[in-house]
Specification:
By secondary structure, the protein is an alpha+beta fold. The protein has 5 domains: about 45-160, Topoisomerase II, domain 5; about 250-325, Gyrase A, domain 2 (2-Layer Sandwich); about 370-460 and about 465-480, Topoisomerase, domain 3; about 500-595, no CATH class; about 595-740, Neuraminidase, CATH 2.120.10.90. The protein has 19 helices and 37 strands. A 4-stranded antiparallel beta sheet has the order 12-13-15-14, with helices on one face. The protein has a 4-stranded antiparallel beta sheet with strand order 21-19-20-24, with no helix packed on it. Strands 25-22-23-28 form a 4-stranded antiparallel beta sheet, with no helix packed on it. Helix 7 packs antiparallel against helix 17 (about 460-480). The longest helix has about 40 residues, at about 350-390. It is elongated and about 155 Å long.
């Protein structure tokens, strides 16, 4: 069945399916080609191109006076772009905002919005505008035969199909747009870098990608924030034409406690960033920050001050958290999708995009030079006729005076063309002076020299490329500037955990014999002096920081851990660990320790075996803990102690005997039984193990009895691991603690 039927009355009939499909495809093509995507030639969308051209037609050059923006918008809508005035004005505003466009095309006067609120611009009846100097790079060659002209929407006048951009504007200001089924996101770049890449490709079209990426290392946004995308990812982006770019705020530290953010990522509002940080502060998730201030002014468009709690706060870690949790760091999608010279949208890589633009530019320059050559030849032709007239001036005047139709007579007499004869007839009397012949011959000489030069360039691809290269270098020198967005490789942003965000305060964790635990603020707390429930008593204590993990050991050799900040206050009796940990049958918590994760500790059993491990190895997220120390039959876990390389390890037995050896003799293990510490007699047990610096004086505690041994007495017991050691006084038979003497 036919899709389309025309009846005898001339009325066309279509199926709904056919009509809707065609209508939607027409709409989709319109949005793609005439609204959302930029053309590779001038890098502009149709509305932007029409605004720029309309302003040039109004005479709004960079050197002219400002005119009301409403006048410009009215001309654009009435002559070229029959759409909404607000959308047209917003497109115009975007081209005037120096924080939105890397190289602004419109020079605005009045309120054109701010970084915090780009849409806070005044109505078009209040603002005034003109073209910027940079816009001349798009318009200079419009009237020089370089562009194709098409009728406007009502066919009453013509408009340029594409502007003859002298530089690759498609990459300089970038653009973003959403069409039907496709989108474009092109970041801005630096003019000097892009021109350097173009010149390198002119000299060597087979330039390697690596060499090209050295010249064009990455985007260059209008702000001074940092581009932190790794070099490999940028290379991949430019190779494929799509990817992403990450930008991070630039900051500096003043007075050790004030972090001053002086550059925000592209299109990020300082007010929104402060609001995000303030929300975290209100939620008690940012204890290291005590105050926020916005000190931005005319001289410092961006100056956000983040005041830290003290000089001890890790600024780098704090900023990495803020980068991860606020808009101080943002990722921008890149999709180099443009309408090519063939009129079709396509995602292009950097090389393809620059080469295609260069072919467009070479053709534009060819058309411009050819246009000028045609003008020169036409003028030379007229000058040849004028010279003939001057050499035969009397006869020419006589013909004009005596003939009714002098034009054909002149053409027949002197062999003139119609154009030459018309030029002679239009001569003014003042031009019949004697000096006029000299002027004609001088102009002929100049034009003849220009003709030869133009023909020489047009006849050689190499000379044409050289001409393009010279013009690119001149424009880059005149309009180029230094890179604003620095390229750096930095640490990845990482949001702090809930534990990291807590204030770090000194605490003392106290453990009781019945397995109750509590935490007191400060390190001047003595757990022995605290009150305990009836039938309970002090078992041990550990000193650390509230942000650290507390490690517990049970009687079976398993380790458990809990966050220090989560423990109950020492104002009460605490709470039993059995409610928070899954202890094995018959097991009970006997030891507690705290410290930095990389802190080394000595773990030992009363059977005389032990090893060294790191504290973070003992941390377990499992309520059931993890098996660490293998205990021989009828042995117990001894109180762990901190150790560092070169320390002496002191071992005391129930005999009592004392052995001292260098800690480096004891292996470092993740778990297990360990190595033998001291040679034990039958029925003898190790009572305590301690680590100290060589030359220390130690207190040996046996219940209420304390015996202090001098450094020399300790040194007398120095031997090798697993030896028998030396005898101690019988009063130290039940040593339960060793500590450094005061």
């Amino acid at each position: 069945m036919s899709q389309q039927i025309i009846n005898y009355e001339g009325v066309e009939q279509q199926s709904v399916a056919h009509f809707t499909e065609k209508a939607y495809l027409d709409y989709a093509m319109y949005v793609i080609l005439d609204r959302a995507l930029p053309h590779i030639g001038d890098g502009l969308k149709p509305v932007q191109r029409r605004i720029i051209y309309a302003m040039s037609e109004l005479g709004l050059k960079a050197t002219s006076k400002y005119k009301k923006s409403a006048r410009t918008v009215g001309d654009v809508l009435g002559k070229f772009h029959p759409h909404g005035d607000s959308a047209c004005y917003e497109a115009m505003v975007l081209m005037a905002q120096d924080f939105s466009f890397r190289y602004t095309l419109v020079d605005g006067q009045g309120n054109w919005g701010s970084i915090d609120d780009p849409k806070s611009f005044a109505a078009m009846r209040y603002t005034e505008s003109r073209l910027s100097k940079f816009a001349q790079l798009l318009l200079d060659e419009v009237g020089q035969g370089t562009v194709d002209w098409v009728p406007n929407f009502d066919g009453t006048m013509s408009e340029p199909l594409v502007l003859p951009a002298r530089v690759p504007h498609i990459l300089l200001n970038g653009t973003s747009g959403i069409a039907v089924g496709m989108a474009t996101d092109i970041p801005p770049h630096n003019l000097r870098e892009i021109v350097a890449g173009c010149i390198a490709l002119i000299a060597n079209p087979k330039l390697t990608d690596a060499e090209l990426f050295e010249l064009v290392p990455g985007p260059d946004y209008p702000n001074e924030a940092l581009i932190i995308t790794p070099k490999e990812e940028l290379a991949q982006l430019y190779t494929t034409g799509h990817g992403s770019v990450r930008q991070r705020a630039a900051y500096e530290v003043e007075d050790d406690v004030n972090v001053v953010v002086h550059a925000l990522p592209f299109q990020v509002s300082g007010a929104k960033v402060l609001e995000q940080i303030a929300n975290q502060m209100r939620a008690k998730k940012l204890p290291m920050v005590v105050d926020l201030r916005d000190e931005s002014d005319h001289e410092n468009p961006t100056r956000l001050v983040i005041e830290l709690r003290s000089k001890r706060i890790d600024v780098h870690a704090t900023m990495l958290h803020l980068f991860a949790s606020t808009d101080l760091e943002r990722s921008y999608r890149v999709n180099l999708n443009v309408i090519g010279l063939n009129g079709r949208p396509q995602v292009k890589n950097l090389r393809g995009l620059l080469l295609e633009w260069l072919s467009y530019r070479v053709e534009t320059v060819r058309r411009r030079l050819q246009y000028r050559l045609d003008k020169v030849l036409d003028r030379l032709h007229i000058l040849d006729g004028l010279l003939i007239a001057f050499l035969n001036i009397d006869e020419v005047i006589a013909i004009i005076r005596e003939e009714d139709k002098p034009k054909p007579v002149l053409m027949a007499r002197f062999g003139l063309s119609d154009i030459q004869a018309e030029a002679i007839l239009e001569l003014k009397l003042r031009h019949l002076a004697r000096l006029e012949e000299m002027k004609i011959r001088g102009e002929q000489a100049e034009l003849e020299a220009e003709r030869k030069k133009l023909e020489r360039i047009l006849s050689s691809e190499t000379r044409l490329n050289t001409q393009v290269k010279k013009e690119l270098l001149a424009d880059a020198e005149l309009y180029g500037d230094d890179r604003r967005s620095s390229l750096l490789e930095v640490d990845a942003a990482r949001a702090m955990s809930e534990q990291d965000l807590l204030p770090s305060e000194p605490i003392t964790v106290v453990l009781s014999d019945n397995g109750w635990v509590r935490a007191a603020k400060g390190h001047d707390v003595d757990g022995r002096q605290l009150a305990y429930k009836s039938g309970d008593s002090f078992a041990g204590q550990a000193f650390g920081q509230s942000r650290q993990m507390v490690v517990f050991f049970d009687s079976t050799g398993r380790s458990y851990s809990l966050p220090g900040h989560s423990l109950p206050s020492a104002r009460s009796h605490g709470e039993p660990l059995s409610g928070r940990l899954n202890l094995p049958a018959g097991g009970r918590i006997t030891q507690v320790m705290m410290g930095e994760p990389k802190q080394k500790v000595v773990l030992a059993s009363s059977a005389g075996y032990g090893f060294i491990t790191s504290l973070d190895n003992l941390v377990s997220k499992n309520k059931s803990g993890k098996a660490i120390l293998s205990l021989p039959v009828k042995s117990e876990v001894l109180t762990p102690c901190a150790v560092k390389s070169g320390d002496w390890i002191v071992v005391v037995t129930s005999e009592p005997r004392l052995l001292v050896f260098v800690s480096d003799e004891l292996p470092e293990l993740a778990k297990g039984k360990g190595n033998k510490l001291i040679q034990l007699a039958k029925g003898e047990q190790v009572m305590a193990v301690f680590a100290c610096e060589p030359g220390s004086k130690l207190d040996f505690v046996a219940g209420d009895y304390v015996k202090t041994l001098s450094a020399s007495a300790i040194e007398e017991a120095l031997s090798q691991r697993a030896k028998r050691g030396v005898a101690l006084p019988r009063t130290l038979k039940k040593v339960n603690e060793i500590r450094v003497a005061q």
